[in-house]
Amino acid sequence: MTPLLLDGRKASQALLESLKKDVASLNPSLTVVQVGDDPASTSYIAQKMKSCDTVGMRHEHRHLPADTTLEDLFAVIEELNTNPDVTGFIVQLPLPVHLSQYVPQVIRAINPMKDVDGFCAYNLGKMFLSKEFEHLPPATPSGVMQLLAFYDIEIEGKDVVVVGHSNTVGKPLSTMFLNRNATVTTCHIHTKDLARHTREADILAVAVGKPGLISADMVKEGAVVVDIGITKTESGLKGDVDFDSVSQKASAITPVPGGVGPMTVASLIRNCVRAKQRQLESEKSENSF
Ligand code: NAP
Question: Which of 255, 177, 259, 271 is nearest to 11 (CA)?
Answer without folding.
Answer: 259
